Amino acid sequence: MAREYAQSRLDQPRGRRQVSLKPSFDPDAFGRVSESIARFFGTARYLVIQSMVVVVWILLNIMVVTKTIRWDPYPFILLNLAFSTQAAYAAPLILLAQNRQAERDKVQVAEDRAREELSIATMEYITREIASLRMAVGEVATRDYVRGEMQALLKELDERDRGLTDE
User: What is the C-alpha to C-alpha distance for residues 89 and 94, in angstroms, rounded to an integer?
Assistant: First the structure.
């Protein structure tokens, strides 16, 4: 993993600066540049440009008209060297971009896992709440039940009234 570079703090005075002959660079900026280069290598635009350069290179080196300015005759050794050099730089840049993407993917997976755990806990809580509400509603008298009980009481009272008036 890339080394963390200390950021200078504005709320503290600068300490003694040590002079170093080692070149310093921001690894994050270098990584961003390598990712943009790797993205460009994977485009159709790059393939078209590279193919056009190769065709022009070969045509200029085999045409009879340009016989006096041939800089890379038939086996095209200089073109081969250019491709080898490009591949030598492209491969590590692509690997660096892939490593950075893998690190971002790890962070994303961890965030997704935490979000999923929170969602599961929330669903379990809501499920328990709904179950407790159902149990509470089961114990509460409903409107139809109360109406039925009142009608039964009225019927019973009517029967008593008839019984009292018949006697």
Answer: 9
pTM of this prediction? Answer: 0.52
Q: How far apart are CA 6 and CA 14, in angstroms?
A: 13
**Which amino acid is located at 92 in the chain?**
P
Instruction: For residues 25 and 32, give the distance between their C-alpha atoms in angstroms, rounded to a whole number.
Output: 12
132-146, pLDDT tens digit by residue? 988 887 777 778 888
Report domain extents, the chain.
27-160
If you write DSSP's letter for every residue of the chain in order, what string do you get?
Answer: -PPPPPPPPTTS---PPPP--S----HHHHHHHHHHHHHHHTSHHHHHHHHHHHHHHHHHHH-STTGGG-SS-TT-HHHHHHHHHHHHHHHHHHHHHHHHHHHHHHHHHHHHHHHHHHHHHHHHHHHHHHHHHHHHHHHSPPHHHHHHHHHHHHHHHHHHHHHHHH-
Residue pLDDT, tens place only, 5-47: 456 677 777 777 676 777 777 778 888 888 888 888 888 999 9
